[in-house]
């Protein structure tokens, strides 16, 4: 486990990003609304207009905490490169919010955004496998690193769309990985990875009051790509990539359902959204027969209102996160 000083740094990192995001979000809501940067909440009967691109506030909190970590001088190279990768990923998300990038362009740009991470992760190409120990990957690790960044970013981007969903699930997975990193600290990449995840956790918690049901602002792709890339970067820095895969199983199942049903990478806006009845219950999208996803699958079994659906998805993330932590405890023995 970590020492008291490291724990103190993690708490400060969480609090710093929380405060920045919590303070920045209200004026951002007003600014985006006045600028016409808003979208319809299609899962409400009344279809309200909600401010978009709230990911700016998430990134602001995350970046502030990362700059704090950089001034500490702990693994400065890892901190700086990680911030660069998340910044570039967030920029890809912002471009997608404004220009609607193609289904190939977005993950490809995300891949190039992750290339810089090879500078730090590529020098230590081993994989920590739960219960089995470490395995050397050699040069094969180099192309995997940026792929992990874009895959994580786009998995989060696909597993989103309901009030509080991506923020709640992101916070659950991030918290679990911080615990995994602390349990396996003697086998992982050290404190820098923990600080990356702590910065993200605080930003997510600071944004949650404004994004929970009924949401006052949406994250936008700038937010989802920022979240996904930060989770991936933190997991890679800690060398707990497979534990992250386990913790994020709902994301992976959802992404797999989409890819297998459609047969290729596609943009979600090309398909109809989850339907809402006059009494506020959600039912599967009219496109469900050609584009499967986890939320519509749940709704195909039983219709429910949006808060109930989101809590169900949170529960799935809690279960996968708990499994990841349990495997970390067992692997540490």
Describe the 3D structure.
The strands form three sheets. Strands 5-6-7 form a three-stranded antiparallel beta sheet. Strands 1-2 form a two-stranded antiparallel sheet. Strands 3-4 form a two-stranded antiparallel ribbon. It has one domain. The chain has helices at residues 4-34, 55-72, 76-99, 105-113, 118-121, 141-158, 165-183, 191-211, 220-238, 241-247, 249-262, 294-301, 306-331, and strands at residues 38-40, 49-51, 126-129, 133-136, 275-276, 281-283, 304-305. Strand 1 and strand 2 (49-51) form a beta hairpin. It is built from 13 helices and seven strands. Helix content is 65%, strand content 6%. The protein is globular, with a radius of gyration of 19 Å. The protein has 333 residues and is mainly alpha-helical. It starts with a helix and ends with a helix. Helix 1 packs antiparallel against helix 2 (55-72) and helix 3 runs antiparallel to helix 9.
Summarize the model shown:
It is built from 13 helices and 7 strands.
β content, as a range?
Answer: 5-15%
What structural category arises from helix and sheet content?
mainly alpha
What is the number of E strands? 7
Order of helices and strands: HEEHHHHEEHHHHHHEEHEH
Outline the low-pLDDT stretches: none
Strand count, sense and closure of the main sheet?
Answer: 3 strands, antiparallel
Mean pLDDT figure: 92
- Give the helix level as a range of percent: 55-70%
- Continuous helix count: 13
Global outline: globular
| CA-atom Rg in angstroms | 19 Å
**How far apart are the first and last residues' alpha carbons, in Å?**
12 Å
Strand order of the largest sheet: 5-6-7
Number of domains: 1
